[in-house]
């Protein structure tokens, strides 16, 4: 019996971001190296936070720190493709949020890879956990599945 997660589809996500692959993303085997996917996870989530006004890289007093991440791969992606990263919220706690992330080849219905990404919110100066700000909590609720 396998513990492999079922492959997700676009309907399992709330928002999408196009991300172009780069020449140096490919590894010696001719496909995007696994570590690049984690960068895409970071890019999708943090771009959404910045565009929504929830994160100011230099000035936010409250920031989300990554405490856990994971990825399951289903098919290869290679330069020069553009992928589409889907995000949704799986779990919303008092000071933490777990995002569901899907990496899709352009126009494809099923994820080429999928994973999760957990932020714990802390005060930037002291690194102590704090409650997720109300305005962000409302927006995260709209991404909930």
Describe how the helices and strands are arranged.
Layout: E1 15-20, H1 34-51, E2 62-73, E3 82-92, E4 96-105, E5 113-123, H2 134-142
Antiparallel strand pairs: 1-3, 2-5, 3-4, 4-5
Give a structural overview.
By secondary structure, the protein is an alpha+beta fold. It has helices at 34-51, 134-142; strands at 15-20, 62-73, 82-92, 96-105, 113-123. A hairpin with a 7-residue loop joins strand 4 (96-105) and strand 5 (113-123). The relative contact order is 0.24. The mean pLDDT is 96.
Give a short summary of the structure.
With 145 residues, the chain is an alpha+beta fold.
Kindly provide the radius of gyration, computed on alpha-carbon positions and rounded to a whole number of angstroms: 16 Å
Across the major sheet, the strand order is 1-3-4-5-2
Task: Please summarize the sheet with the most strands.
Answer: 5 strands, antiparallel
Poorly predicted regions:
none
Give the tally of β-strands: 5
Structural class: alpha+beta
Percent range of helical residues: 10-25%
Q: Kindly state the mean pLDDT as a whole number?
A: 96
Pattern of helices and strands: EHEEEEH
User: What is the count of DSSP helices, taking H or I runs of 4+ residues?
Assistant: 2
- Cα shape: globular
